[in-house]
Design brief:
572 residues, alpha+beta, 5-stranded mixed β-sheet, two-stranded parallel ribbon, 13% strand, globular
């Protein structure tokens, strides 16, 4: 067994694991009515889906960091010996689902001194630097080994050393035994679940887990994206926000030219998450209200005649949406690292299913968006928002904005983002936010929102956009909020008066439209240098952001969070 040196002191661990600092998001309980009301077949299926998601977590831990599983085993042995420091460390490890993470103050958390942060996470050799990576690829391309390089730069490979070269191994092949066990669980669930469409998807997904063929994933994704009226939810999420190694290749001019010459687009590595839940019919019906407006929004996207987008104005909208009561979230989707996702719009643009006529699906996480402490919320509003505008702050409006954000991912250019390298996710997340805001007035005119709801979305969004501290460039979801705050402030969308935010409501949407157009232009052009300049020009932490950030830190001590999954634990 590998031995490790625990990095956090007892004092630091006691603080970070205290309930004031470690927020708990509670998923469905064992006696939840949503579970008890299911048909017996669906209850049985849920057991197998939870087990499949738990296996996926073990796989993702290896993709995330090579020390995750050895460190977990080390902690478990130390706990058996009565090591209190290991016990508290394990609480944080389980919460962030890994040895390294980042907290709400954008500070890195290293749980073991021997496990450094890695640009390529667990998808590249631990000792591989970006410089050596680039030089190996250049050498391989010059020797005519483009096919091998393409496998290295795909989203679904684990990269290993092969003599003085590198080799990309499809993750299905790399973790063959675990994926086969997952497939068995999905097949068992498909035999007892009551919904034929859902069962067909599970069988397609099981098949894709047994054979390293991206097209099998495409067939499963295509079916998954059509699911609308099913009792249960099961998703394998595949997103590539964490890999800082793959995208770096376009920053090397010689290597970029060789890749262009060989028609190779580097796509950052996917990290895998498992989502299991029960569809909430009432919440889903409310989500579907926006669907009929999506073609109109597509027509109103900036420069819409210059690119193809997922929502085609003159065709049926291939977009399903479900609100889910959460049973468990494992792997990438369940990592609480400074925050946790409220919803996802998948498959992403780099996935094959979108090239064979597949659509996209939005899944919203009910338990994650619930406000657990309304008193704390009121304290925050009293400290940072103009008293006269409290009437327009509504926590549900944050959900409405999230709906707009997720649907905006389906709008705009669907190709070429990989050329933006490490800025691709920042630009895309910024686009989704600005799409959500830019269309608020139009959706109000169309009858989706009332005038009161319009004001609530605008004020709530601007008020919630402030952070406690400046994030790092690797935090795409947070970098974009800093960029927006600077952009909005310079154009008068809000003022800071007597230390509090006053939103100039009628200015917000026009400014959001302006920023949306600039972002879409960058995506169309696919110019790395333009993307870099745009991010650097706007990613500026101002004095006013610091002022509000200091107030937020006084009110909320939360540094991280954890999931409580009582029903899933019982089913597993």
């Amino acid at each position: 067994m590998t031995n490790y040196t625990l990095n956090l002191s007892m004092e630091e661990l006691e603080k970070r694991t205290h309930k004031d600092y470690l927020m708990t998001k509670k998923f469905l309980k064992a006696d939840a009515p949503e579970y008890l009301e299911l048909a017996d077949g669906d209850k049985e299926a849920l057991k197998h889906l939870v087990r499949a998601a738990n296996i996926l977590e073990v796989i993702d831990m290896q993709l995330d960091h090579p020390d995750n599983l050895p460190f977990k085993a080390f902690l478990e042995e130390e706990i058996k010996k009565g090591n209190k420091q290991a016990e508290l460390t394990k609480i944080l490890f389980d919460a962030q689902k890994g040895v390294n993470a980042i907290d709400t103050l954008s500070e890195p958390i290293f749980l073991a001194k021997e496990a450094p942060g890695l640009a390529g996470k667990g998808c590249y050799p631990k000792d591989l630097s970006k410089e050596e990576f680039h030089s190996i690829l250049i050498k391989m391309l010059k020797e005519g080994k483009a096919d091998k390089v393409k496998k290295i730069l795909t989203q679904r490979s684990v990269v290993e050393r092969d003599g003085d070269e590198l080799i990309g191994i499809d993750y299905i092949e790399k973790f063959k035994d675990d994926f086969a066990k997952m497939a068995d669980e999905l097949d068992k669930a498909s035999e007892v679940s009551t919904n034929a469409d859902f069962n067909e998807y599970l069988k397609l997904q099981a098949k894709a887990l047994r054979t390293a063929d991206p097209m099998l994933d495409a067939y499963a994704d295509k079916k998954w994206a059509t699911l609308q009226d099913t009792p249960l939810e099961f998703t394998i999420t595949r997103e590539n926000y964490a890999d800082e190694m793959t995208g770096s290749v376009i920053e090397n001019p010689e290597l970029k030219q060789l890749l262009d010459d060989n028609n190779i687009s580097p796509i950052p590595k996917d990290f895998l998450g498992g989502r299991v839940g029960i569809i909430n019919k009432k919440g889903t019906d409310a989500l579907m209200a926006i669907k009929k407006y999506l073609p109109t929004l597509a027509k109103n996207m900036p420069y819409n005649d210059e690119y193809e987008q997922n929502i085609k104005p003159d065709e049926d909208t291939k977009q399903t949406m479900v609100d889910v009561d959460m049973v468990t979230a494992t792997g990438d989707v369940g990592q609480y690292r400074g925050g946790i996702t409220l919803a996802e719009n998948l498959p992403n643009d780099d996935k094959l299913s979108l090239t064979i006529g597949g659509g996209r699906r939005n899944v919203y996480h009910r338990q994650i968006r619930f406000i657990s402490d309304m008193k704390k919320l009121q304290e925050r509003l009293d400290a940072v928002l103009d008293k006269e505008q409290h009437q327009y702050y509504l926590d549900e409006a944050d959900h409405w904005f999230t709906i707009g954000h997720e649907n905006a991912h389906s709008l705009g250019p669907k190709k070429g983002n990989e050329k933006l390298g490490k800025y691709r996710n920042i630009i895309e997340e910024n686009k989704a936010d600005m799409g959500a805001l830019a269309f608020v007035d139009l959706l109000t005119e169309l009858g989706m929102y009332t005038e009161e709801q319009r004001k609530q979305i605008i004020v709530t969004t601007i008020a919630d956009n402030f952070l406690k501290t400046k994030p790092t460039l690797s935090q795409a979801h947070r970098v974009r909020t800093v960029m927006q705050n600077k952009y909005f402030a310079e154009r008068g969308a809000y003022d800071i008066i007597d230390g509090k935010i006053h939103v100039n409501i009628d200015k917000v949407v026009p400014i959001a439209k302006e920023m949306l157009a600039e972002i879409v232009r960058i995506q169309i052009d696919g110019d790395f240098d333009k993307a870099e300049k745009y991010v650097k020009d706007n990613f500026v932490w101002t004095d006013n952001m610091e002022l509000i950030g200091q107030k937020l830190k006084k009110i909320s001590k939360t540094l991280n969070g954890t999931l409580e999954t009582e029903l899933a634990d019982k089913l597993a």
